[in-house]
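Blinded run. Sample ID left blank on purpose so nobody reads anything into the name before looking at the predicted structure. Input follows.
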Amino acid sequence: MIPQHDLTGLILAGGQGRRMGGVDKGLVPFAGRPLVAHVRERLAGQVAELLVNANRSLDAYAEFADRVIQDAEAGYQGPLMGIYSGLRAARTPWLLVVPCDTPALPDDLVARLVAGIGEADIAVAGDGQRLHPVVALMRTALADDLAAALARGERKIDRWYARHAWVQVDFPEGEGAFANLNTQDEKHRLEQALAEESIKR
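Blinded prediction complete.
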């Protein structure tokens, strides 16, 4: 098992939010609070340090993180660059990565990924049907290898994972728990679904 003091959390919020009109997606309101606030709750108190990877609105994101880190290289190069930036910034042997636009992540996400990684270098969340590669636990010792991959032009997360010993950790909550919100319509639908679910409870 990986103790909490060996684990850093990273929320990826460094994208351009193009499909949502270019807004800073992590700060978009969802059920009355910024998306990043919902994601933070899934990691807070379970990691030694919580990082937010952002390339704008740094002061706003500071409210939700122990440290805000920018991409190691400019130009909005995608989530793999955000992951590399987190691997490089982490002060622990392990990094747990989540995107800023997944407000329904399972409450026991950290514990389940830690329990499921075994001897592997990377544990990737799945819903029983497909992988969610931006929800993953990985060794920070992979930073140099990822730096080399990025230097060769690699930008596909799954291709980089395939170079290493990785495992899939499935969550019974299904795909809804990993719903990432790329448009305002997707955001409104999930807000409505979660509101209806809380009424049923």
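Unblinding after everyone has recorded impressions. Residues 184-200 form the longest helix (17 residues).
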